[in-house]
Amino acid sequence: MVRRVHAKARWDSILDGSTPLTIDALTRLTAALDDDLQATNRAIVAKMESPVALIPQLAAHLVAAGGKRLRPLLTLASARLCGYEGERHVQLAACVEFIHTATLLHDDVVDESVLRRGLASANAVFGNKASVLVGDFLFARAFQLMVADGSLEVLKILSGAAATIAEGEVLQLTTQNDLATTEQKYFDVIRGKTAALFAAACEVGGVIAGRTPAECAALATYGMDLGMAFQLVDDALDYNASVAELGKTIGDDFREGKLTYPVLLAIAEGSQRESAFWARTLGEGEQTEQDLATALSYITRHNTIERTIARAEVFAASACAALSALPSSAIRDMMRDVAAYTTARRY
Amino acid sequence: MVRRVHAKARWDSILDGSTPLTIDALTRLTAALDDDLQATNRAIVAKMESPVALIPQLAAHLVAAGGKRLRPLLTLASARLCGYEGERHVQLAACVEFIHTATLLHDDVVDESVLRRGLASANAVFGNKASVLVGDFLFARAFQLMVADGSLEVLKILSGAAATIAEGEVLQLTTQNDLATTEQKYFDVIRGKTAALFAAACEVGGVIAGRTPAECAALATYGMDLGMAFQLVDDALDYNASVAELGKTIGDDFREGKLTYPVLLAIAEGSQRESAFWARTLGEGEQTEQDLATALSYITRHNTIERTIARAEVFAASACAALSALPSSAIRDMMRDVAAYTTARRY
After folding, report:
1. If both were cysteines, with which of A71, A130, B76, B108 could B36 make a disulfide (CB 3.0 to 4.6 Å apart)?
2. What ipTM goes with this model?
3. CB-CB contact of A235 with A260 (8 Å)
């Protein structure tokens, strides 16, 4: 179980590098599923082929940029946890990664991002137009992969997730620059844009293994709550100066006027002066160069990074609890550790 | 059968309004399938619902803008031609329209369009970001509709079409401003971006009616060739000054540096002076206000609008011929007339 008691102390020790123990839970799970993951990578490369050269070129740029392959890993891990012995999980893991990649491509266009995982984003290199259209291709290709798999139940889960992701993205757009955004709406946004695909990625692993509806639902809950924790931490890290060294920009959400959890908490408790600051910088989107530093000082004052992480840990604990519905195994332990890692990661 | 002999004479008479006879083939088919089309419209409105208000708002803007519903009509007509008596064709027609609408939304972002069917385009009203994300939603929703239908064969056809559309769009992007674009590549572009969905829309009508593979393939050929004809005419009309009155801008393709058929023909036969003009305006994208008029004069000089229409008529004739594989009926006659209408339409 993830412990919340020493959230602040642990967070501090992680930031100063003295607590590596949970950091590599993801690395261990990745190592345990290495064969599957290699096969998934091969499937990804094979299935992004097209006679239209720009498609594999742009897709290769994304593959080269790396990424943790967290979502496909969840499909692979869930399938193995459920005792699955076939090959379908590899194709479905590739399909999950394609949906994720298509979303990233469109996100970067929408957010006008120039960096992705520390490298120039695809839209910065190939232009917005190519990013929109290659995103569409990857999305369509993901569905072709699902159709080739041939399970209507899997198709239902993943097409539902795709629609929910788009709804979450649109909701995020409508809450942008809206200081009246409620916590509830924020949670709706991240449930849609992030957690829904985590949930679907896990659930399909159980479905192809022929597990009971209750077990599949438990996997979906694990994925959903893990996704919520993951996004909360992401939103916390966007205000954490120490990640800037790791090739990630910080303050993106601030510049884009996104009302994320650390900011919502700070706004709720802000002085009149602080309220005026948030209204100008996030509500009106009028920002000067010093404003990010001021935002960080307010966030520090209200301790909202730690509180965001603490909220993430509640979700991570719930994710771990959901796994109790499934048989004990080394993979299950690693999946629990990944939930802990998710709230402990620093980038 | 469509006749090519009097292509120029017919085209002229259509432009001056003296040949209405084929114009309303689409209207007649629409009337014949009125109940089905009304049901499809209801399905479209019902299925674009979402708790995220911007989604139905933006989608309603597109529905309000009208459109001929040509693609869903093809699904309905093909199903009825094949003697289909159930209700699945309505949901699949809605799904075809969703794929088309998602493509339009992304096209308008890519092309930076401000008008669509004579009204402000969605991206002009709601912004590029909303258009990208709502397009994603409609695409995902289309897949949910297909999954609800439950036929893996239908899913295969439509997911394949979706991937082909995206490939066509990306190929179009890479040929933009490229004067070395071949006719072959141009045909690849329009086969992907337009004809593939026409083909799929028709084919699924045969599939749900349980027709033979040969008959379904004939419907796909009809749709494919009809789509080729349709896009060729569209590309011709973009250089036809008389359509400007009908709420459609002309010269969009020219301004966007698209190497469409009327231009490819003119380039191939251009004088040195003309070549320099195309190199500057389309190759370099350096255009002044008078350039469209000059482009039109070159196109007129080489008679390439009529020649593009004539090429469209070859495809339309092939579309008609494909229908011979299916039983004679009033619907089949109307579908043939629609092919003729496609090359005769003026907007």
Report:
1. B76
2. 0.90
3. yes
